[in-house]
TrEMBL record:
InterPro entries assigned: aa-tRNA-synth_I_CS (IPR001412), Arg-tRNA-ligase (IPR001278), Arg-tRNA-synth_N (IPR005148), Arg-tRNA-synth_N_sf (IPR036695), ArgRS_core (IPR035684), DALR_anticod-bd (IPR008909), Rossmann-like_a/b/a_fold (IPR014729), tRNAsynth_Ia_anticodon-bd (IPR009080)
SUPFAM superfamilies to which the protein is assigned, alphabetical: Anticodon-binding domain of a subclass of class I aminoacyl-tRNA synthetases, Arginyl-tRNA synthetase (ArgRS), N-terminal 'additional' domain, Nucleotidylyl transferase
Gene: argS
Keyword Flavoprotein assigned: no
Designated name of the protein: Arginine--tRNA ligase
Chief location of this protein within or outside the cell: cytoplasm
């Protein structure tokens, strides 16, 4: 149960019992946690947002609504604050029921039907197939994968997609780079890698494979004879490497779409014809970029998309000076293809260096979908790899960057995934190789995992201390949970009961990092309760001579473990039951 959704419905039902004008718009009525915990459990703005339409003063409407809410069996007290905000305090038995819900659902707690199984496409990583994944790709991969899991938990039908940029000049450069490594494998001394080619030694295995397949057939052949063949082989080889890198990170896509496939199937031409048929393509001359003096800029007629009609700052070129389509044209075709495959809702995860591309792409989606599609773009800022407080590079295998595989091999996939989600996507992230392996509160991975492991340690002790007792989730859910009345215990239960709301709000905002903050709060609350038990023996989880209270606390401990496991599942992180 999303208890705040539930109380919003109860508040609207209470309003319907008042003598108010019919047809009141209640869409702006909210039920949410109060800003300050001391103010209660649920706050509503109903009287404030409806008073004008109701023809009453906010305070008067609040008094009438409060009288209705005081009769609710789950409400212990109602307070009116300021000009008409209403705060509700709930009875302890309500929280015992929420705890039973957690135990009955287990790690599925927080699953929602909010999305109604509506389809949504999340495209992420989509790196050029020219080499191994680097640490920047790791962040986009984790954010996209966790967001897809979060949306699935919130009830959406999610498709994870990777767009292979295999139609641009960079894949020709890749083919030439692999041809150089092919010649090297045949015994040629290639010397220093020429400027403009990819220098990483990750291309050597592909070169050796080509040498084994073709011998010296293409060693001295003109480029026209081998470029297309080597390009196809190179893209396949790099995509195999990328899939392996992503698998090491626990990332798996449902769909891989090839840009070259779109071009060769005529879908780019067809998409631009469709856009032209809508009257959104024209021949024109763009003004020079504002605030810039460009020596090489010259006004010339171009094929342009009316991006300004859909919220962009300027209209955008669709053709290059040589008459070929721009990258933007291919991207329009790709997003139209996604829309026609049944995805009116699309999310793209991009690097921050693509920030200037967002408006034009959103404009294009509005245009080709004729208003039926929506594109949300999440930009991922840079990751700074640190060690000992200093920038750090781990490997030269890739030439100039730290590979994703090196990072995973160094600290493990679960650490990489969790840390990548500890900041909002548009905030810079420092990834400190020392700190992420520390066993301290300052390491969020350890802090949350330690809470989960501590829960299981307590449960193992419970089996020994309560011989013959049924500590299954079902038995604990039906147990004496009403015995949990200490404010510290209730605070933990209230935090757990907020997980369904957190899932829905984070999914709606497309912000999986909220889960990391929430898990840290749950871990802190549980560790705090543990520490209170060290100071006050009556707050220990196992109370000698009071099996009933001990069982209730075993239920609370198991529920904490279940909610942490539920959150870690969204992140694709395995919860641990023992710390090494």
């Amino acid at each position: 149960m999303n208890l705040f959704k539930y109380f919003r419905q109860e508040i609207i039902a209470a309003l319907s019992r008042l003598d108010l004008p019919s047809g009141l718009d209640t869409s702006k009525v909210t039920a949410e946690p109060p800003r300050e915990e001391a103010h209660g459990d649920v706050a509503t703005n109903a009287a404030m947002v409806l008073s004008k339409a109701a023809g009453q003063k906010p305070r008067d409407l609040a008094e009438a609504l409060a009288a209705q809410l005081r009769a609710h069996p789950a409400v212990a007290a109602v307070e009116i604050a300021g000009p008409g905000f209403i705060n509700l305090r709930l009875v302890d038995s309500f929280w015992a029921e929420r705890l039973a819900e957690v135990l009955q659902a287990g790690a599925a707690y927080g699953d929602s039907d909010m999305g109604g199984k509506s389809p949504i496409n999340v495209e992420y990583v989509s790196a050029n197939p020219t080499g191994p994944m680097h640490i920047g790709h790791a962040r986009g991969a984790v954010i996209g994968d966790a967001l897809a899991s979060l949306l699935a938990k919130a009830g959406y039908a999610v498709t994870r997609e990777y767009y292979i940029n295999d139609a641009g000049a960079q894949v020709d450069v890749l083919a030439r780079s692999i041809h150089l490594r092919y010649r090297e494998a045949l015994g040629e001394e290639i010397g220093e890698i020429p400027e403009g080619l990819y220098p990483g030694d990750y291309l050597q295995p592909a070169g050796k494979t080509l040498a084994a397949i073709h011998g010296d057939d293409f060693k001295n052949a003109p480029e026209s004879e081998w470029l297309a063949r080597f390009r196809l082989f190179a893209v396949d080889a790099m995509m195999d490497m990328i899939r392996d890198d992503l698998a090491a990170l626990g990332v798996k896509h449902d769909v891989f779409t090839s840009e070259r496939g779109l071009v060769e199937s005529g879908k780019v031409d067809a998409a631009l014809d469709f856009l032209a048929g809508l009257g959104q393509v024209y021949e024109g001359v763009l003004e020079p970029p504002k605030g810039k003096v460009l020596d090489d800029w010259e006004p010339r007629p171009q094929t342009l998309f009316r991006a300004t009609a859909f919220g962009d700052d300027v209209d955008r070129p669709l053709k290059k000076s040589d008459g070929s389509w721009t990258y933007f044209a291919s991207d329009i075709a790709y997003h139209l293809d996604k829309y026609r495959r049944g995805f009116p809702a699309m999310i793209d995860i991009w690097g921050a260096d693509h920030g200037g591309y967002v408006k034009r792409m959103q404009a294009a989606v509005k245009a080709v979908s004729e208003g039926g599609g929506d594109l949300d773009v999440k930009l991922c800022q840079m990751v700074n790899l640190m060690k000992g407080g200093q920038p750090f590079k781990m490997s030269k295998r890739a030439g100039t960057f730290v590979t994703l595989r090196d990072l995973v091999d160094q600290v493990g996939k679960d650490v990489v995934r969790f840390i990548m989600l500890t900041r909002k996507n548009d905030a810079h992230l420092d990834f400190d190789l020392d700190k992420v392996l520390e066993q301290s509160r300052d390491n969020p991975v350890f802090y949350v995992q330690y809470a989960h492991a501590r829960c299981h340690s307590v449960l193992r002790h419970g089996v020994q201390a309560l011989p013959g007792a049924d500590l299954s989730a079902a038995a604990l859910a039906a147990g004496p949970l009403a015995r949990l009345t200490d404010p510290a215990e209730l605070a933990v239960i209230k935090l757990l009961a907020g997980w369904p709301r957190l899932v829905e709000s984070a999914a709606e905002a497309h912000e999986p990092h909220r889960v990391a903050f929430y898990l840290n709060d749950v871990a802190a609350a549980f560790h705090g309760l543990w520490n209170k038990g060290k100071d006050d023996t009556q707050l220990r989880f196992l109370i000698e001579g009071d099996a009933e209270l001990s069982l209730a606390r075993m239920g609370l401990v198991r529920a904490v473990a279940d909610v942490i496991a539920s959150g870690l599942a969204v992140f694709g992180v395995e919860p641990v039951e023992e710390m090494r």
